[in-house]
Amino acid sequence: MGLVNEGQVLERVLPAGPLRRGELWEACHTTANPAVATLSGAQLRHMLAVDADDEFRRGTTGPLRGRPRGRLFVAGLDGEPEDRDYVVAATDFELEDYGGYVERGWRLAIRYEFPTIVREAIEEELQRAQ
């Protein structure tokens, strides 16, 4: 499944039609790194509960440079997380404690796609889809 925070991925809607690299990079300023980790259903429920707090969504952190967090977008999950493990694609912002979604003691085994950043990953995926 996938998780991404709207406050740190796209700052505006991308234009319809062919997308130029400059337009993507202007809309996506994040330097977040794509990542994958295995989370339990309980951990996912915690993250979703944190995200449900409107005050949390309006809050910000250093990586967001004053912008509010906004919503956490979730892909590949129908309903509430079950009591099992999930392989989750996200970024360091969602999976490290400085994003505010995870507890410090979780010790997730996160695999990063260094040195790739999110906008480069989006660009690569769009090129593959052509």
What is the assembly state of the chains in this entry? single chain
Low-confidence spans: pLDDT under 50, at least 5 residues? none
User: Mean pLDDT score, rounded?
Assistant: 92
Distance between the termini: 23 Å
Give the helix/strand class.
Answer: alpha+beta
Strand content: 15-25%
Task: Let me know the largest β-sheet.
Answer: 3 strands, antiparallel
Q: Please tally the β strands and state the result.
A: 5
**Helical segment count:** 5
Which descriptor suits the 3D outline?
Answer: globular
Rg over CA atoms? 15 Å
Relative helix content = 25-40%
Within the largest sheet, what's the order of strands?
4-2-5
Order of helices and strands: EHEHHEEHEH
Description:
With 130 residues, this protein is α+β, with helices and mostly antiparallel strands. It has helices spanning 21-27, 41-51, 54-58, 92-95, 118-129, and strands spanning 2-5, 34-40, 72-75, 85-91, 111-112. It has a three-stranded antiparallel β-sheet. It has a two-stranded antiparallel ribbon with strand order 1-3.
Offer a quick outline of the entry:
The protein has helices spanning 21-27, 41-51, 54-58, 92-95, 118-129, and strands at residues 2-5, 34-40, 72-75, 85-91, 111-112. By secondary structure, the protein is an alpha+beta fold.
